[in-house]
Amino acid sequence: MRPEILNPLFAEIEALKGVGAGLAKPLGKLGLDRIVDLLFHLPVTWIDRKRVEVLEESDVGAIVTIPLTPIEHRGAGGRGPFRVIAQDKLGNTVVLAYFGGNPGWAKKLLPIGETRIVSGKLDRYGQELQIVHPDHVLPLGEALDLPAREPVYGLSEGLTNKRMGQLAAQALERAPELAEWIEPSLIATRSWPGWREALRRVHADPADGMARDRLAYDEVFANQLALALVRASTRRRRGRALEGDGRLRAMLNLPYAPTNAQARSFNEIAGDLAQATPMVRLLQGDVGSGKTLVATLALLVAVEAGAQGAMLAPTELLARQHYETLQQTLSGLPVTVAILTGREKGRVRESILMGLADGSIDILVGTHAIFQEAVAYKALGLVVVDEQHRFGVAQRMMLAAKAKAPPHLLVMTATPIPRTLTLTHYGEMDVSRLDELPPGRTPVETSIISADRIDEVVTGIGRHIEKGGQAYWVCPLVEESEQSDLAAAEERAAALRARFGDRIGLVHGRMKGPEKDAAMADFAAGRTAVLVATTVIEVGVNVPNASLIIVEHADQFGLAQLHQLRGRVGRGAARSVCLLMWGGSRVEGMPGRALGETAKARLMTMKNSNDGFFIAEEDLRLRGAGEMLGTRQSGDAALRLATPEQLSALVETARDDAHLLIERDGGLDGARGQAARILLYLFERDAAVGLLRAG
């Protein structure tokens, strides 16, 4: 059960005064469903409302807050504005202009002869100073309530900044005083305010760095504590030691010897598998570094030891790629591999379920379907999870329920991740890193090109395929949209087919499974020369003859995604090229977009580097943790409050503090631990129940 003290915070947003179904909808679009969500919806910036007594030329272009006395009302109809002529205390004149609507309310707001405090942006229109639609007009007595620094919140349609501030104030009134969960000496050293006071200060003054750091630390500390509890719980449980005899691995016919990095990583994994304590290890490697081979060797250890293995992929396309790779690699070995996704139904599905239950299936590959309640394993010993950032703490804890003894867990990511995000996302795991490429993988040459030169690109593709080459053409959308001028895969495929006929293939996420499989099979077999695709090909696609990739509107993609896409080529002996095409417009007569500074920085990073770990650090700097790791899941590092800079500065301290609490300060049963239980509910609510039961 959630601690009772938190009940007011977890009340639905409609509990606030003035919030009905109509207002709850735009709040919900921002993810503000409960009062605690509103508390953590911190201002994104602020407006400095400069207090002045008289108008100065130097104030033009700034927001000013000044006493003004209306002396005349002008205009009340037609298309022109309603104008209030006002003066400061020295008689300097300014026009307060209101456009549209009935001017009656403005007359009441600014009666002639009565001084008001007016706040808004001061501009010059011809020879006149003016403030268009002042932000605030207040009687002298009420002006004391106008902050010198006004918070600005993220909004959705149907919400105003003023309304959001009022709701935040209501939420703050409901926030209880909570016992301190941060180590006392750290609080003293940093001079941080308490939790409730920090919230009050940030909502009042968004520039309060000390209060923001305190709240960022709370979030990072909760993340590190959750991961530490998962690790501690795992280490307490006894699993099954898996020590293979090497007979199956000796039968493998590999095209090349494993790299030193692959051998080192496999030895680390094999050492973990040989222990009864369940392994929880991350295998991190750049695009093309050979993670799948290391995972295959680990799965063979499990089978040699008489256990079953499972490989979980985030998408059906990637699951089928892994299945086909395993089938090829293990060809001729007495190992039975099966696949289970949402597509397997009826008798096929029943046969797979029976094979898992009686142990005749050694390795199962699939999507999340492989961990549904109906799926029972005879002796599940090892689970391999690919693209781990889509699989949060709560999901990781669920895996233990699928075996009599907790299975060993190996997670893989082809997205190089900076150290700070490794700690926040994989903090309970040991880490193995593949930092060299296998033989035959050469750096891809990357060029940046304007969409104005698309005809040259199409001509170049013609020369490429005439020489027997294959290419990917990546578009950001599936079909043409009136709301966007971004390239659409269906439209691009149609245009290329008009030029090259049936040598053009198409694959995107809206296609049915068999259609996608057929398109991929045609491309892999060389029956099509160009595969037009959306980012569905981002991971898992392996066609060595494809040595050219064009990414259209590359300026709209993030660095990590561009790096993943580029990794689809460079898998064979031929020189490989990646063309990053930016700007342009599909709409005739419309100007193309200019290349912004951030987009330019991303593209230049891609041009100048093939090092995925360097690119990941740049991605974090340019985009932030939340965007890199995608939608927040339980335990994911898509932090809401901590900026990348705060994360880098605080994560090591938070990690040490979490281990200190668990190992020395009485764990969750001590005084600070009881407070930390509440912290977990505040930031890790989806995983908190399971974590606290386990810890």
Q: What would the keywords be for this entry?
A:
695 residues; alpha/beta; globular; Rossmann fold; single chain; 24 helices; OB fold (Dihydrolipoamide Acetyltransferase, E2P); seven-stranded parallel beta sheet; 39% helix; eight-stranded mixed beta sheet
Describe, in plain words, how this protein is organized in 3D.
The chain has 695 residues and is of the alpha/beta class. Among the domains are: 50-146, Nucleic acid-binding proteins (OB fold (Dihydrolipoamide Acetyltransferase, E2P)); 247-434, Rossmann fold (3-Layer(aba) Sandwich); 445-609, Rossmann fold (3-Layer(aba) Sandwich). It is built from 24 helices and 23 strands. The strands form four sheets. Strands 2, 3, 4, 5, 6, 7, 8 and 9 form an eight-stranded mixed beta sheet that branches. A hairpin with a 5-residue loop joins strand 4 and strand 5 (93-98). The longest helix has 28 residues, at 209-236. Mean pLDDT is 84; it is low at 585-591 and 625-637.
Question: How is this structure best summarized?
Answer:
The protein is α/β, with parallel strands linked by helices.
Itemize the secondary structure elements and their pairings.
Elements: H1 21-29, H2 35-39, E1 45-48, E2 50-51, E3 63-74, E4 82-87, E5 93-98, H3 104-109, E6 116-121, E7 123-125, E8 128-132, E9 136-139, E10 149-152, H4 161-174, H5 184-190, H6 195-204, H7 209-236, H8 247-250, H9 260-273, E11 280-285, H10 291-304, E12 308-312, H11 316-329, E13 337-340, H12 346-358, E14 363-366, E15 380-386, H13 393-398, E16 408-413, H14 419-426, E17 430-434, E18 445-450, H15 454-466, E19 470-474, H16 489-500, E20 504-507, H17 513-524, E21 530-533, E22 546-552, H18 559-566, E23 577-582, H19 597-608, H20 612-623, H21 625-629, H22 644-663, H23 671-683, H24 685-694
Parallel strand pairs: 2-3, 5-8, 11-16, 11-17, 12-14, 12-15, 13-14, 15-16, 18-23, 19-21, 19-22, 20-21, 22-23
Antiparallel strand pairs: 1-10, 3-4, 3-6, 4-5, 6-9, 7-8
Helix pairs in contact: 4-6, 6-7, 7-14, 7-22, 7-23, 7-24, 9-10, 14-22, 19-20, 23-24
